[in-house]
UniProtKB/TrEMBL annotation:
GO terms for molecular function: ATP binding; dTMP kinase activity; nucleoside diphosphate kinase activity. Belongs to the thymidylate kinase family. The lineage of its organism: Eukaryota, Viridiplantae, Streptophyta, Embryophyta, Tracheophyta. Keywords: ATP-binding, Kinase, Nucleotide biosynthesis, Nucleotide-binding, Transferase. This is Thymidylate kinase. Pathway: Pyrimidine metabolism; dTTP biosynthesis.
Length: 212
């Protein structure tokens, strides 16, 4: 609504374990911002609509097997193929709410035992988020939520390792929200941190690249 024509959008990333509520929260946040008259889009990774995304989808559904390094690079390539569009959108003033990003890439692959620095390398040069929100839930609690689906990583023992990887990736710039609060309370906290960061971006916070 009050965005001047030369102000940029914000790159907002939501991260967390499977079943933490990220997808519903990013949907609710998108709807709210859109209704408030902001220019906003809802994105997610993996983006299963591209050729690379279809390979990832088939891997996640256990319909194909891939070396751990190879699938890691596909997830990264899936972000690279969207990078220029992402930059264009942000520069033209559109805020992007992104469900998973490079942190998922590193957390899930390093949970399999891959070297963390090796995992981070292909992400170098992607756009750095203006805000990372971590929806915090224990793997046990997440598992209780209507159960996991049939996808490859949706298993308690593996999610415990992913939680550990996320913990080593987190830094003080991340906003951590207790994902066990009610949907409405999580939504309210999320709106606050996002609106605040959108404002700093409109005011000219420079864009940067991974890993800052
Ligand atoms: P989704 O359930 O959010 O669509 O994500 C599918 C799975 O892929 C989820 O278990 C997290 C995992 N993942 C990675 O392993 N690496 C990545 O880079 C991304 C974006 C997701």
């Amino acid at each position: 609504n009050k965005e001047s024509s030369n102000s940029r959008g914000a790159l907002i990333v939501l991260e967390g374990l499977d079943r933490c509520g990220k997808t519903s929260q990013s949907g609710r946040l998108y709807k709210y911002l859109d209704e408030q008259g902001h220019s906003v889009e809802s994105w997610r990774f993996p983006d299963r609509n591209t050729g690379v995304g279809q390979m990832i989808s088939s891997y996640l559904a256990n319909k194909s097997q891939l070396d751990d390094h190879a699938i890691h690079l596909l997830f990264s390539a899936n972000r690279w193929e969207k990078r220029s569009l992402m930059e264009e959108k942000l520069k033209s003033g559109t805020t992007l709410i992104v469900d998973r990003y490079s942190y998922s890439g590193v957390a899930f692959s390093s949970a399999k035992g891959l070297d963390i620095e090796w995992c981070k390398a292909p992400e170098i040069g992607l756009l750095a988020p203006d805000l990372v929100v971590y929806l915090d839930i224990s793997p046990e609690k997440a598992a209780e939520r209507g159960g996991y689906g049939d996808e490859r990583y949706e298993q308690l023992e593996f999610q415990k390792k992913v939680a550990g990887s996320y913990l080593s990736l987190r830094d003080s710039s991340w906003k951590v929200i207790d994902a066990t609060l009610s949907i409405e309370d999580v939504e309210k906290k999320l709106r606050e941190v996002v609106l605040d960061r959108m404002m700093t971006c409109h005011k000219g916070k420079p864009m940067s690249q991974l890993w800052p």
